[in-house]
Amino acid sequence: MAANTISLSISSTSRNLSSLQTRVLIPPRTICFPLSSSKSKPGELSLSSTTISKSRVRAGASQLVNEPLNENRPMTSPTIVEVDLGSRSYPIYIGAGLLNQSQLLQRHVHGKRVLVVTNERVAPLYLDKTVDALTRGNPNVTVESVILPDGEKYKDMDTLMKVFDKAIESRLDRRCTFVALGGGVIGDMCGYAAASYLRGVNFIQIPTTVMAQVDSSVGGKTGINHRLGKNLIGAFYQPQCVLVDTDTLNTLPDREMASGLAEVIKYGLIRDAEFFEWQEKNIEALLARDPAALAYAIKRSCQNKADVVSQDEKESGVRATLNLGHTFGHAIETGFGYGEWLHGEAVAAGTVMAVDMSYRLGWIDDSIVERVNNILKRAKLPTTPPESMTVSMFKSIMAVDKKVADGLLRLILLKGPLGNCVFTGDYDREALDATLRAFSKS
Amino acid sequence: MAANTISLSISSTSRNLSSLQTRVLIPPRTICFPLSSSKSKPGELSLSSTTISKSRVRAGASQLVNEPLNENRPMTSPTIVEVDLGSRSYPIYIGAGLLNQSQLLQRHVHGKRVLVVTNERVAPLYLDKTVDALTRGNPNVTVESVILPDGEKYKDMDTLMKVFDKAIESRLDRRCTFVALGGGVIGDMCGYAAASYLRGVNFIQIPTTVMAQVDSSVGGKTGINHRLGKNLIGAFYQPQCVLVDTDTLNTLPDREMASGLAEVIKYGLIRDAEFFEWQEKNIEALLARDPAALAYAIKRSCQNKADVVSQDEKESGVRATLNLGHTFGHAIETGFGYGEWLHGEAVAAGTVMAVDMSYRLGWIDDSIVERVNNILKRAKLPTTPPESMTVSMFKSIMAVDKKVADGLLRLILLKGPLGNCVFTGDYDREALDATLRAFSKS
Known about the structure:
Chain A contains 14 helices and 17 strands. By secondary structure, chain A is of the alpha/beta class. In chain A, strand 14 and strand 15 form a beta hairpin. The model of chain A is unreliable at 8-71 (pLDDT under 50). Chains A, B: Its EC number is 4.2.3.4. Chains A, B: It catalyses: 7-phospho-2-dehydro-3-deoxy-D-arabino-heptonate = 3-dehydroquinate + phosphate. Chains A, B: GO terms for molecular function: 3-dehydroquinate synthase activity; metal ion binding.
């Protein structure tokens, strides 16, 4: 293997998903997947999407376990994935109805003051519920909130300042806790605000989109965009916990649902072929929000993410592989205009481009190219960039990508059998040019 | 001692200046102080200020050692104070003419790209010299620079964005190095920019004021002001090294010189009575920029700062004691208008207020009050706040101080013999009110 290349394969010793700590808070209530009741063999959950409605998300999840009533609601025990980072370790709680379990959140609140950062779309749906979860039976805690405009185009310094303004006007001190309630934009902005406010306060992630639940809320990458590039200003800053209440997906628009699946598909391609094969059988079930399929996909995605982040918190190596398709994708988001395409949509088209380039380099066979195109189309994601993107736009925006080192653009490319990738600047420039020409105007 | 109080005394076991690593890069060229040529006993350097001109700073420093010529300049060996923070440890180089010793800087530059952040006042004086030091004999390194407006009132988000704009437009990648060339404002802003750019790049501090050389460049506190309070947005982020070229003080205005001495005096009061006694004998020599006196005061201040920071990097306890007078002082800076008073001027008045309150509490005797007033007046620093400050202004601004915890304002107050202080929220509120009334309008 050439220097300047990091290889990550499913067979490498560094990857050991089975050794990941996945514990359950109340052991007898463990949710196991695949569920015996689903009548499927492992890796073979196949459900007809036509029989599943959105309303089944809560119902399905509630059916997973038989539990005593608590506060008149059925309580499910969360699945817990640990992110192992020494003194900065934290749990990801995954389950239906977790926002009803106030003790989960309250154990991670430091001090008596909380600031919930959310947006105009999420606030009417979940802000009251979140405030209730933070304060129920805990009258000493007071909660402030700041409601930001919704969308990637507001992930900027001006909007971030509204969080600081609110925190300072509310006289929040170093012992306060920030809570991010929303999708990836809210999580990234709230996390960066928490990293910077009084030089760092505690924070908690409550992701409400698939994108945030499977990817952006885990691992401590926080930040904002610059007009010239995505996520160029920020911090590595880990939360106290991540609380994934899968019920929040009930209200997620279809386009957002599909966008999140782009990141789920990514984990399969870069390091978990078995998961990819499972997705090929279950992609329609995921789109149709089958609760069991979603719970499994979220848990397995978080396990993959936690495993990678634990090995390389600050992206000096293997963590970069989580950015498959993102260098092309960020160029689309920046060039086409923040918020025009959702992040996952841009990543999907970017993934097709990275796979195309990998094939041009002779690193993968054409069956992988075909399978990637197929699954993304089934997920209702784009497989080509917007028509207005040109070769020169891609080149100029990619030049400020964070993975450029000493002027050399390093990319995540697939290499070998399904589930294997490399992070490398050691590739034939002609293959990159050919891919850019094939997918955009010159 | 009451709970919620941290005591730091000269006799405490945690303080052991003599055990601090103070090494010299090239041992035979060690600068020892007190100098045998100064004909003074330790702690008794007394020089007549009337015989010392500014131009002697360089000359004086050059006279310290006999050295071979290198690149046609006399080379002095730096004194080195280590800041011991495990994997984030770094050296502080102190000496005259260090900007001429390019190897000192170059060993700490990572990658091939450097961004020098400086201001309109410092750039004409030292930017070319700094670029030369970074590039001499090292043609692979290219240097960009961004020149900010000068002054505390520009320590804000809008000005910080100019640093990001320049870095991104220059396509600097994660392997670049930011260099702060200037006083405390530049160091704090450049450090926060380095902490945030691409989620963190390397940086180097080249402080050019006494304030920055003895205090703000050491210890990794970075940040910007908010209109409602000082340094409320920032990060703990350590530099690769701090390079203190005492020659840069040649061009420092008298008012800036005095401002820096407020922090020097602080070290004596909170933890180093012997240093305070030395200052009482040498304050005029310092004001007159006697090179040997300055070199000693800078080294001993850095040793004190390094010792405290090594014990408590993120200010969970003892590090807060470095803020003697700062809670009152920040209120003055915020209330009176950023930049109207220099930071050290506000700290000086704030120190008098903290000492007054300590006396009202019965924690120190009146001789300390008198000595503090005397030395600050001799240093040509203010000992009362601006007349426009009111009790309510102090109270409302101090309520957002970073040392407030769960609504309780903790202060650094002197207690016991000279050189002893406490960091506590356990004090009689009436003493605080009495001090505020004594020093400002109601």
